[in-house]
Fold this protein.
Amino acid sequence: MTSPASHDDRYDEPDQLRDQLRRLLRYRATIATGLVLGLLGGALLVLLSAGSYRSAGEVLVRSRTDPFSTFGVAADNQVSMGTERQIALSATVAARAARALGRPSKAAALQADLRVTNPPDTQVLRFEYTAGSAKRAARVTNAFAEAYLADRQDRTRAMVRRMTSGLEQQIALLTRRIDAKSDDAASAAALRDQVGALQKRASDLRSYDTSGGDVVRRAEPPARPSGPGPAWLLGLGLAGGLLLGLLLAWLRSALEPRARSVGEVQAALGAPVLGILPGPDADDADLLVVGRAGGSRAEAYRTLAFRLRAAEGRTASGTAAGATAPGTLLVVAPKEDRDAEAAAVNLAAAFAESGDEVLLVDATASASGLPARLPLPAGAALPAGAPEGGAVVDAGTAGRFVLLPDGRGPGGADGPAAPVVTRALPYAGSGRPVLFVTRPLLAHTDALAVAQRVDGVLVAGRLDRSRRDDLRRVRELIDCSGGHLLGAVLDSGARRGPLRRAADAVRRRRLRRQEPAAAPSTRVGDLVGELPAPAHDDRLSVSR
């Protein structure tokens, strides 16, 4: 058996990329939320780093040559640059720099934003400081460089004092020995030579340049902030927000239990979607719109009726060469919803508009059943062969059809629906269409009992409310009961645009004035390309 075609080219299955993009774009609010969060994050980065300036200065560390160095040791090996870097980062240097800046209590805070590096194979220390203003960054950087040199100079002077003090002690000791050996001229002369050498060494120490090094590059105020500018940060925030929004939208799409597209409904139900109904306007509050209200919703029901005829024609003959009467059809919703009742009523009116003698069976056992919500003209005679207890429904310009209410009533809701079904089935023996509407399939067993006795089952639901798991259960239950699932009709719930609403209002005013309407066959023919107007009950011409 060939599966019926989809209801419209607009809802053909797209490629995987387009389908995935469509799924993500359903969650526009989530994507917009991600963009807003990214923009706020970028603005926060601007506030934190847009006013951040970094200034750098360099200091050449002087080696301690003789008399401090060991004989034979190169000058480059007399300075441990790793040790000097740690000293430059020490709390002692930070405290000296804070005093020079006039903020002795902020030494720890100043030290936190300082960075000292040593380029490879050099005796240069590079000081970098980050501050909120360019001048402050340069000022603090120079303060740390000068504080380090001053600290190293103090350490060198302290070493000179210690060594000079040791030499003076040696000189004093030798002088006392010279006085003790004044009678030994040779020994006294030798001691005097030693004293002279020590005095010369002490004199050299006192004259030694104790400066720690030289500033080879002073820090200057930077011309622009460090890092990316505000435009880059905002752009980065927007890009990150877009990625976040897309990720959240993908997670929602993956975890969404509802069928949000025609493709998802078809995949879960295992049958095509035969119709998409536009959402009703305020003027479309009535249950019956075909033949009475007009508009795009009524036209969608007429299109659905035509496709059901084509589906039944293929089911019966295996080809689409001709269409037959719809036969017996069950319209049912997965769960509690009035979509099944609206679809059944308007399909009955659409079939009656094509000249069929339609019987609509209300097996919902509801207190507010269809008789209370449909126009039933008083004293209207039932057509020949109609079941007893039926009533005639006036569908306006579409004609009339017969409604067979559920004899159980609301008090007998737990009883079986078989009696009313048995009474109605003989009516379809002469080729007249019979439509059944029952309680939800997943809530009661009435629908399964009817599904195995009718020619086809039409599932009615909402596009954004039907759950995929419910649709899969519907398919499994209908298959297990031996029924034939024709497809689904979905109510999109979308409002019509202002131009379409204005056109529908004009059409409704024409109907109220009872202006001549086009022949029913012509109206159906408009949906398939201006088909010829059929003779009385010439149903085969509808599918040509």
The longest helix spans residues 134-180. The chain has 16 helices and twelve strands. Residues 1-13, 66-73, 314-324, 514-544 have pLDDT under 50 and may be disordered. The domain at 266-520 is CATH 3.40.50.300 (Rossmann fold).
